[in-house]
Specification:
transmembrane helix, O-fucosyltransferase family protein, alpha/beta, globular, Rossmann fold, six-stranded parallel sheet, transmembrane, 13 strands, membrane
Amino acid sequence: MFYSLNNGGVFVGLLVLLLPVFFPNLFTPLGHASPSIFSEWNTPKPRHLPLLKGALQHKTKYAQRSDLWSPLARQGYKPCFDSPTTHVLPEKSEGYIQVFLDGGLNQQRMGICDAVAVAKILNATLVIPHLEVNPVWKDSSSFSEIFDVDHFIDVLKDEISIVKELPKEYSWSSREYYATAIRATRIKTAPVHASANWYLENVIPVLQSYGIAAIAPFSHRLAFEEVSRDIQRLRCKVNFQALTFVPHIKSLGDALVSRLRYPSGKYLRQKTSEIERQGDGKFVVLHLRFDKDMAAHSACDFGGGKAEKLALAKYRQVLWQGRVLNSQFTDEELRNQGRCPLTPEEIGLLLTALGFDNSTRLYLASHKVYGGEARISTLRKLFPFMEDKKSLASAEERANIDGKASLLAALDYYVSMKSDIFISASPGNMHNALVGHRTYENLKTIKPSMTLLGQLFLNKSMGWSEFQQAVQEGHRNRQGQIRLRKKKQSIYTYPAPDCMCQA
């Protein structure tokens, strides 16, 4: 009997030792935002229990609720698309410009705007931009799968010449061609935020010699300063008028918006007060960027214990090969500086402190939440009427976009632009793009004060009333008020005054 048990123990021990050899995926990240089974199984517990109890018990005052849902007053600026000069296309193009854009949807969107501007500066014909396969999201969606190409060309037809494909004599100029060797027609040296003169001095000679130039990489490759007013206006015309999503994205987006504004029977219940009725037909979009990449990149502590810290450190090393290191700051220092993304629990507490309550319809715009449903359970407890793409649309309706990160992001972007209020849990490209677009349309957009919130959440002795007062005072002027662009700031985040005229 002892021999049998002993042999059994040895067998189990060998099995445990050999598991990493035969099943390495059990011990390493399975892919984007997927936890490894043996390293991240700890379910994070609420980190702000006293505040959470206060949030669950709070009642919103009538005046606060009324002010919260009221639209923004006009602020003295209005959109203006047209350049101050008459549009006249030159008789002859200098040649063809190709650009290869990396990053996610919103980074690519800004790159497209810059590509149009560069083509205008060079008097070149723009080839519909090539979107690189995203190394994180593994998405190969093309420009025409995301944006309405015919609309894009039509809106800009008086500004620049645009072609969908190169003529046959230039068909050799492909992405594969530039991947194999150094090519004379590829511009690799464009500095970040290059001036208009840089393009005139360095790209025009290539166009004159070969009739074509391919600029790659092309991300943040045109400066925001020392650019003519016409070019600035053109960038905004591309961003806010020419770039519209393909019809099936807009159709599905409209369906989601309708279901949020006019919910089905599962939401129907007797409204007990005028405060509850104030939110009828309205909804908030929360961009909850709390994926594994964000968590790993920030180097902050999110309450998952030692296992989570080790797993994120390993993921950081695998994904960025040492280019993003563990922070030399402590978690407390990072939070004091506002450098930690808000967790779902923290954004829920922020929303509640601002005046939203358990009758608020909340649309969750996100790709994958690190930690899954366990991580957002506290947020769902505060906002039971929380929806997302999967809960609002059937599998058949999502068939054309499932598994395609750029199309999923496009749908979220579209719904976000239709919402009464938009709020993002963390700064980033989608946050910046939507802040700019909603500023342009004068729509209410709450910008969390990351530094204030980091400091408030570090104060473990703070009660709900004090927290709520501090949040409301700190966000009184962060709800869509126009901020004029400062030097070197992005025109896509701060469109006034370059792209907005005084009313």
